[in-house]
Amino acid sequence: MYARQLDYFISVAECLNFTQAAKHHFITQTAMSQHIRALESKLGFELFVRNNRSVQLTPAGQIFFQETKRMIAIFDEAIEKARHAASGIAGNLRIGFIDLPNKKRVLPALIQKFHRKYPSIALSFKTGNEEAIRHDLERGLLDIAFTTSFNLAATPPGLAYKPLYRDPICAVVHRDHPLASKVKIPPTALANDPFIALEMREYPDALERMIQFCEERGFTPNIVSRHEYAETVLLMVEAGIGVALLPRFLKHSSNNNLRFLDLTGKPDYVSFIFTWSTNCNNPAIPLFLKEMDSFTEEKVPSTKKQPKSTVAGKVILTNSLN
Predict the structure, then answer these.
(1) Which of 168, 230, 247, 319 is the most buried (most CB within 10 A)?
(2) Is-above-0.70 flag for pTM?
(3) pLDDT tens digit string along 281-316?
């Protein structure tokens, strides 16, 4: 009884113009006014204040507008869920991710959005290190994964990826370091410092990129120790053994004894990526990709040039969180 009138009301409330709203629904302005009057009569209160110059929502109309939009959204969601159930959209999606602080930047809200839209798709999760997660993807034990990459060009064959966002590389120093009070420093300011390096089995490119980063800026880092885990590198810097170059998101794993300093000049990044096996035919994967695209556009609009997603060196998708 109310559905069409509510639709008309929302249109008028959004543009505050009866003529424009009527054109949107391909009816006359007179017919639109009659529908709104009929709705007001049923409700028992006025929705709009009208005069020859303008149309405004009444206080009651403003509340009704907000609540009506919420109700319509719930109604549309119910229809979408019912259609999925009727069309047989169901199954399982096995998701892997590495246990890093930056996973909370995207994953909880994205997974919630996907589950609400596809409640019949059962989700399971596995946490592991980079090597274990990639191994499970290649063996078909996982459908998709969220992980990091120090070098996107080195992504193993058979895996497709989509960059989500990037974290810049920062200088990490002890709070008593002479440069600790600075906000941003040139990389060359650390040329004479001993370096603590991250040398991970699953990220063989991390150490090479760190050395290359320094050499491109005119110095070779004096590496005094190498460690497989970022937490150990942070511990060594906190102990005053040296300085390090690490992604900014690790600041959440540090304490007040450490300072993360931005670097001047051309920045370097670690990418947080969504990846999946090109040999996996799970129909839930393209559904998840579609939701991820709309999610990133809604949550973090960007005016920067978007990184490209790649399968075996070919561009297939675009979108990122920067």
Answers:
(1) 247
(2) no
(3) 888 888 888 888 876 655 543 434 444 444 433 323
Sequence-distant (≥ 6) Cβ neighbours of residue 139 within 8 angstroms: none
Query: For the chain, where are the E strands, in sequence order?
Result: 48-50, 55-57, 91-98, 121-128, 144-149, 159-174, 184-185, 194-198, 222-227, 244-247, 258-263, 269-277, 308-311, 314-318
CA dihedral angle for residue 220, residue 223, residue 224, residue 229, rounded to 10 degrees? 170
- The CATH number of 3-87 is 1.10.10.10
Closest CA to 261 of 190, 164, 206: 190
190 vs 39: CA distance, rounded Å: 71
pLDDT less than 70: residues of the chain: 1, 81, 84-89, 99-105, 150-156, 201-204, 295-322
Q: Where are the domains of the chain?
A: 3-87, 95-322
